[in-house]
Task: inverse folding
């Protein structure tokens, strides 16, 4: 559970997911105008909206959460005009859950069971 006082900033512009700790901290400073070392969670997604990273600073170093969705997308908040929006913990939970993406024509709808090679 994320405490209610923690600020959560979402970058609405796509970010290269090859970026790691320092690259995402730089993106937070440049795109969001915030210093990650001052607190808060910083959320970044890729262009296809199927990969997401959350960066935060924990007393003596950066932490990174990386999530990749299969057959789903992250629905990024915002109206398209702002480069960043602030959300609450419930909004982050909804964002991390993702939404089903539309099926592509001819796509195999078979579900692969965990732990099988089918």
Result:
């Amino acid at each position: 559970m994320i405490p209610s006082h923690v600020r959560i900033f979402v970058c609405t512009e796509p970010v290269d997911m090859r970026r790691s700790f320092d690259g995402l901290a730089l993106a937070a400073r440049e795109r969001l105008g915030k210093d990650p070392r001052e607190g808060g969670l910083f959320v970044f997604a890729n262009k296809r909206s199927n990969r997401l990273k959350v960066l935060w600073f924990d007393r003596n170093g950066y932490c990174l959460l990386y999530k990749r969705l299969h057959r789903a997308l992250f629905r990024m908040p915002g109206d398209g005009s702002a480069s960043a929006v602030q959300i609450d913990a419930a909004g982050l939970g909804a964002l991390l859950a993702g939404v089903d993406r539309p099926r592509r024509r001819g796509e195999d709808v078979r579900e692969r069971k965990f732990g099988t090679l089918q």
